[in-house]
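Inputs:
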Amino acid sequence: MSVRVPVPDRTRVLERREHPVVRVLALAGLLVLWELVTRTGRVPSLFLPSPLDVIQSGVEMLRSGELVTDVLTSLRRVVLGVGLGALGGVSVGLAIGISRLAEAVGNPLIAATFPIPKIALLPLLILWLGIGEASKVAVITLGVFFPMAINTYAGVRSADPLLIRAAVSFGAGRWSLIRKVLLPSALPMIFAGLKLGAGTSLLLLVAAEMIAANAGIGFLVLHAQNLMETTKLMVGIVLLSVLGVLTHWLLVRCERAAIPWTT
Amino acid sequence: MRVVIDRVSKTYADRRGQAIEALRDVSLTVESEEFVALVGPSGCGKSTLLNVVAGLTRPSAGAVELEGDFAPGRSATAMVFQESALFPWRTVQANVEFGLEELGVAPAERVRRAREHLALTGLAGFETRYPHQLSGGMRQRVGIARALAVDPAVLLMDEPFSALDAQTRRLLQEELLTIRERTRKTIVYVTHTIQEAVWLADRVVVLSRRPGRVLATVPIPLGRPRTEAQLVEPGFVGAVERLWSLIKAEALGALREAPA
């Protein structure tokens, strides 16, 4: 007996809906939950101050100027460290990606020094450069240098041989090849390295400021803990989160502007 | 511009270090304004030969010479690649200007010559697009414009349309014929499609399977400009038949061989 049946709809399994409202609610929910927990009075505010108190405290610290000093001090260290590290990393990455000789010299050196947790070098850097700004900037520079160098190297090596041949077929010389083919080929990897490095830089910044500093966000967090000022401590942590998110957002914007050829 | 390929041989080492003889004693002269197609079974070294002519592969023996007038601001050869090989970070306009930059042409002149060749290849209005925003056929047109912009004495084409769908391929073949009528370029064209070779070329050179040698040279008895009506003429059909009978045995042999 012949029957007519509809084709089974199998698309349900493949469906992945967007949930824009839930995105906002998740974050707001956490804050509300946090506030509610502190309102019950069961958790002492020394352990967990309420989010509203944290915001209020943040505004006060902003007014008094202590926050501005700490943030500017930290920003300066990060910008200098990331800048120097990126510059050095890209230069070395390009060199070892392009020249076999540089590769032979650089690769084993990088392989040997890359696994060292950079914070372990801070005491040595303080010994060499003093306890001031230089040692903090240097440890961030080192932390950013490695992911940048390694990523740039990988980016150069992954350049499409067909494009290299095409460039050479039009008479491109060595310098042209580097500037017009190898460098743009490596740009996506360079940005990936920059994002990695930016994350590392915050980590090293805070660690360095906790070990030896009298200003900066890391100092603020540690100092507040010593004085049992948990609210101020939380202000520092929230600030770090904001700083991390902003840095990433900024890098993504830069990346889109610098690499307009990827969708 | 004449291309004189004089007893060219090429042996290279593969990944396992084994010597592969790609070309053996190939001699061939392409006359000025002539359109020569190189056909042969896969892995017969026709692309290797083209690369030798482009100066991208050094022959193990023999030499390739170009004979004619060399003007400044002009390239000896320019290549159109199978996979277009456009620079993804350059716009269409900047891609076409690439060769001109390397020739040291002044910026204003570069822009002018690029525009001219974009118009010639039907790409006017696409100057600011990036390659990933174009279809395969359009990308190949940019590849052709880029090669023509340096006004090469010899245009080298390495299976330029083989990655395209059949309809696009046919349209681009017609465009190439029109461009040839206008520019009178000397063209060396590598393909594995016999019909394409016969329809486009003045002469079809058949290479044997490895090591590649010249098996035969078949002149094509079709007038120019080429028209679609010629696709059913006895001259076309006869040349296709003759070439297939030459290649068939070679292709069968290549089929049974281990992949290159």
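The domain at 52-258 of chain A is CATH 1.10.3720.10 (MetI-like fold). Flag for discussion at group meeting.
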